[in-house]
Amino acid sequence: MIEIRDLAKRFGAQVILDGVNLTVEEGETLALLGPSGTGKSVLLKHIIGLIRPDFGEVIVDGQAVATLDRKALSALRSTIGYVFQNGALFDSMNVFENIRLGLTKPEEFNNEETARARVEECLRLVNLVPETMEKMPSELSGGMRKRVGIARAIAGKPKYLLYDEPTSGLDPVNSDIIDALIKRLDTELGVTSIMVTHDVRGAFRTADRIALLTGGKVVAVGTPAEFRESSNPEVRAFLERDFDLEPLSTVSD
Amino acid sequence: MLDALAAVGRFAQLVAEMGRGLVEWRVWAPRTLDECWKLGVGSLFIVLLISSFAGAVTALQAGYQFTGNIPIYVVGSLVTESIVLELGPVLVGLILAGRIGARYAAELGTMRVTEQIDALESLGRAPSSHLLIPRVLACLLMIPLLVIIADVVGVLAGWLAAKQALPISDQDFAYGARIYWRPFDAYYSVIKAFFFAGAIGLISCYRGFTTQQGAEGVGRSTTGAVVTSSVVILLLDTVLAKMLLN
Predict the structure, then answer these.
(1) Is residue B128 included in any domain, yes or no?
(2) What is the ipTM of this complex?
(3) Bridge-partner residues for A193, per DSSP?
(4) Distance from the CA of B154 to the CA of which of A108, A198, B78, B201 falls in 20 to 30 A?
(5) Minimal Cα–Cα distance from A166 to chain B, Å?
(6) Could B116 and A50 be called an inter-chain contact, meaning their C-beta atoms sit closer than 8 Å?
(7) Number of domains into which chain B is organized
(8) Which chain A residue is nearest to residue B110, measuring alpha carbons?
(9) For the domain with range A2-79+159-250, which CATH number is right: 3.40.50.150, 3.40.50.300, 3.40.50.1240, 3.40.1550.20?
(10) pLDDT band of A106, cuts 50, 70, 90
(11) Mean pLDDT score, A88-116
(12) pTM for the whole thing?
């Protein structure tokens, strides 16, 4: 379980997070919605200890992330897969080496054959062919980079998956593919996921619950149905865009 | 003032982080070899070029100035001592501050702004052992080696240039080269190279690693790495001369 308590962060004079409270239960997929620049990614980076809070705490599996020493933080990170906004693939390494770095068990990482088998399995899970392994990140399209980023995040069989804007910069077709992939991985791998996005349509299609972050605070949390019916003016303002949701089963991979 | 103190603190933190990362030798050792190869082989041509020209020009200028009663063999002394004590390590240091310092700062800066360093940390891997230690160690190992090569090539180029342009025999040049020579001169050259290498490696890695604000930030880090490394090299040159030669 991930608990965020009174989390506050400012950069210089700019207040980014101003007392965020949020709980993510085991096995659920939570979409964190909010306009661009409201600190959604900053919140996500607190969970994995890439940013330290000014105030408040993030507790993952009973451990306060900011208080962990180097070894404990590394151990915690091995249970969390993080999908970066633009993939953040290591451009000096090919796809195989990128995904291999996600392997958290030394025996898997050090054995070339085992590593190759696991990388191939991860590529298959994100609907990429094994031949992709030998490609360099510069040879991949935007959608493929995102999928390789997801493959790297799931390589270590994490308990938690954090997605930072997984569909940003993609066309609607590729966005649908990524949304379907996230939904499928959550079901197949049984992970707890947090998906940061400003894509309302994607959030409604993939999440069990949705939270709205605006003005440095979480102003609403609920199921997609509750969100749709919400009378909260900030929720209404954010959802004013007319979206027509298709069932995911109709989206082809 | 506070910003400067904060920067010193961040620099010390980074160096301490590298110290802690040294235990992960299985990670940094192969990457260090790779970096050594890139640094050494990639810089060899420019080092040979500048050391050759430095040796030749020193010999020609010495010949131009030493007229009248000054014995011609002094050209050999001047070329050897100038190259080994000063021009070899300083010219190579400044050139590599540009070539290697800019590369390291730009590489790490780009990795920072494209979240590759965050990605590495999120995978439970230490950036110090994957990225920083190999680069700094490659500098510490290869730059002194390149300076030794520059010293030898510089003196040989000076010898050849002197023979072509001045009435000096091989025996005169060799006599002049030996007359003021002390073995410590060679050690001094390598000691300087070692300090310059540390400055280039640490400063460029620090500037790249702490890059902020996109492409503009990468540009600022790269320029900052080259300028700061060059200034520190000149400062170290003065301090080491005062400490070791007096």
Answers:
(1) yes
(2) 0.84
(3) A29, A161
(4) B201
(5) 14
(6) no
(7) 1
(8) A91
(9) 3.40.50.300
(10) confident
(11) 90
(12) 0.86
How far is Cα B60 from Cα B71, in angstroms, rounded to an integer?
15
Q: Could you tell me how many residues make up chain A?
A: 253
In a domain, B80, yes or no: yes
CA of A189: how far to CAs of A78, A223, B48, in Å?
16, 21, 57
Shortest distance, CA B88 to any CA of chain A (angstroms): 33
Name residue B100's amino acid.
I
- CA A131 → CA A116, A127, A135, A136, B22, distances in Å? 12, 12, 8, 11, 36
pLDDT in tens, B17-52: 999 989 989 899 999 999 999 999 999 999 999 999
Q: Which of B20, B114, B124 sits opposite A86 (nearest CB)?
A: B114
DSSP string, A122-163: HHHHTT--GGGGG--GGGS-HHHHHHHHHHHHHTT--SEEEE
Q: Mean of the pLDDT values across residues A10-31?
A: 90
Tens-digit pLDDT profile for residues A51-64: 999 999 999 999 99
The strands making up A2-11's β-sheet, listed across from edge to edge, are A14-24, A2-11, A55-60, A63-64
Query: Which residue pairs from A83-86 have beta carbons closer than 8 angstroms and sit at least 24 positions apart in sequence?
Result: A83/A146, A83/A149, A83/A150, A83/A153, A83/A161, A83/A162, A83/A163, A83/A164, A83/A166, A84/A149, A84/A164, A84/B115, A84/B118, A84/B119, A84/B122, A85/A41, A85/A164, A85/A165, A85/A168, A85/B115, A86/A145, A86/A169, A86/B114, A86/B115
Q: Which of A50, A85, A86 sits opposite B122 (nearest CB)?
A: A50
For residue A222, the cross-strand partners are A210
Of residues A173 and A117, more confidence is placed in A117
Mean pLDDT of A63-68: 92
Whether A244 has a pLDDT exceeding 50, the answer reads no
| Run of H or E including B112 | helix B102-113
Phi, then psi, of B85 in degrees rounded to 5: -80, -35
Chain B residues near residue A78 by CB distance under 8 angstroms: 124
Helix (H, G, I), strand (E, B) or coil at B143: helix
Cβ contact (<8 Å) for B122 and A101? no
Are B116 and A156 a contacting pair at CB < 8 A? no
Q: Is A217 helix (H, G, I), strand (E, B) or coil?
A: strand
Bridge partner list, A63:
A60
Asked if the structure places residue B6 within a domain, the reply is no
Angle at Cα A146 formed by Cα B130 and Cα A100, nearest 5°? 35
- Tell me if B14 is assigned to some domain: no
Give residue A228's pLDDT. Answer: 84
| A45 contacts in chain B (CB < 8 Å) | 118
Q: Where are the domains of chain A?
A: 2-79+159-250, 90-156
Question: Model confidence at A172, in pLDDT bands (50, 70, 90)?
Answer: confident
The pLDDT tens digits of the residues spanning A180-218 come to: 888 888 888 888 999 998 888 888 888 999 999 988 889
Q: Of A35, B193, B116, A53, which is closest to residue A44 (Cα–Cα)? A: A53
* CA of residue A141 relative to chain centroid, distance: 20
